[in-house]
Amino acid sequence: MFTTNKTWARLLVMLAALALLAGACGGDDEETATVDEDVSCAFEDLNLVTAGTLTVATGETVFPPWMGVGDDVFDVPESKTGFEGALVYELAAKMGFSDDQVVFVRTGFDAAIAPGPKDWDFNIQQYSITETREEVVDFSDPYYTTRQALVSLPGTAVIGVETLADLADTRLGAAIGTTSFDFIEDVIEPNIEASVYGDNVDAIASLVAGQLDGILVDLPTAYFMTAVQIPEQGADGVIVAQFEAEAQDPDEYGMLFAEGNTLVSCVNAALAELKNDGRIEALEAEWLAQGGDVVTISE
Amino acid sequence: MVLTSEAWPSVQRQFFSWFHFRESFPQVLSGFWLDIQMFLVAEVLILVFALVLAMIRSLRGPAFFPLRAIVVTYIDLIRGIPMLLLILLLGFGVPALQLAGVPTSRIFWGVAALVISYSAYTAEVYRAGIESVHESQRMSARSIGLTQVQALRFVIVPQAIRNVIPALLNGLVSLQKDVALVFVLGVREGLAEADIYNARTFNYTSYIAAAVLFLLISVPIARFTDWYTERDRRRRQAMSS
């Protein structure tokens, strides 16, 4: 992956500016956690695949702003940078691990959901929590709630849209397995069948090739796309809009566990502490843009 | 052994769920029609294009050397390039050039990539057939005044094709599975629909639904190949006795 310092600088400036906006509107509700009281979360009782080590799985290639933010730490989860990267180390610390006791392994999407024993404790790569998925795996409590955003190039049919109905005759696409894709099919419901891609990189290639009018992604990813990924392909990306559609349940990200793993209870307890300490909010402000300057489509 | 494994119930639930089979089947089937259309169009083009390549490659004499060299280079190069790369290169790369008059359709370029790749393999199948025809046939044809191309067209190729029909049908079975590769371009064909279902529900039964559909095509072709080969063998025996 080739990036220039300039594009990184653009991304970081944008993130910082929007983080200020986000900080101004945080709630102060006490968070509740899904914790099983029968599970002991003393360090020596933790249910781990390797005793004394927290083995965390993440995607094969991790992208900012989730992990590895910065020119020299791209795809390095151990850099403790990015929202998920920083979160993993803070959770680990709450559960009693030192930084050296956190080990990252890589999995594809399929390896994470295949039946059978897992060689990691939990998997974190922006998995959306859904009921059907919960039948075969367990999720932690949500650590982030996102909005969908529409990314495109200048001059395409989606520029200037104001309502969902304006998108009816546009060619939209998203990566497979994302709620962004479901959002197109279930909420926008365009007349032209949505395209589905193996990952966002393929979707961008298709956008640049003129086969799509827009890509749906979560808002933080939209910032990374327009600041870094699309410029890398020699085009100018724009975030056309973010969505606040009534019909859609909030899209919540959770850590994924093997079904029945008791560790989920301890991670939830640690997560709740971080929420109450205001650390989650601080991490969001540090790493994730909240879309203050992007047009919001609400119907 | 498999059924008594402790983990079997969870494997069964994720791979062989009757409920998920019924749920995903209509969706997979809708995409599968696209597979069949792409498959039929591609196959016709491949059979024609590959035959042209094989005939050029079989031309004799120094006059045809440049043509032969081009075809040999084409076949060598294309057979060495992974199909997926060819599909991505044509499907995303060519439209991104934004040349006037060049189509941007992913299905067009996906099928084009299949035709380009499969023609290189199929040309070699034809060539094997052409070389299996006895040299005396070519010489007899030339001696009655046919040109090289006429000799190939009217004498050699009809016999050659008959010899390689089982191999061509084998390529057909292979192609009907490989059309699914165009899903990397974001084309919603059968396997893509199965993939979408799996990604949404974490259940793999949708792939079983896709497999059933692909089998419905490939098994009859395989049976037909056997039947045809057997009939051809009997006819030849009858002729020689």
- What helical percentage do the residues of chain B reach? over 70%
In the CATH hierarchy, the architecture of chain B is Orthogonal Bundle
Low-confidence stretches of chain B: none
- Count of domains of chain B: 1
Description:
The complex is a heterodimer of chains A (299) and B (241). In chain A, 32% of the residues lie in helices and 19% in strands. Chain A is of the alpha/beta class and 299 residues long. Chain A folds into two domains: 5-143 and 253-291, D-Maltodextrin-Binding Protein, domain 2 (3-Layer(aba) Sandwich), CATH 3.40.190; 148-243, Periplasmic binding protein-like II (D-Maltodextrin-Binding Protein, domain 2, 3-Layer(aba) Sandwich). In chain A, strands 1, 2, 3, 4, 5 and 11 form a six-stranded mixed β-sheet that branches. In chain A, helix 1 runs antiparallel to helix 7 (219-232), helix 1 (5-23) packs antiparallel against helix 9 (279-287) and helix 2 packs across helix 8. The model of chain A is unreliable at 20-29 (pLDDT under 50). With 241 residues, chain B is mainly α. Chain B has one domain: MetI-like fold. Chain B has helices spanning 8-15, 18-57, 65-80, 83-96, 106-132, 135-143, 148-178, 190-201, 205-240. The relative contact order of chain B is 0.15. Classes of the chains: A alpha/beta (299), B mainly alpha (241). Chain A binds chain B through residues 109, 113-116, 130, 132-133, 135-137, 173, 176-177, 181-182, 193-198, 202-203, 205-206, 208-212, 259, and chain B through 7, 10-11, 13-15, 88, 91-96, 98, 104-106, 184-188, 192, 195-196, 199-203.
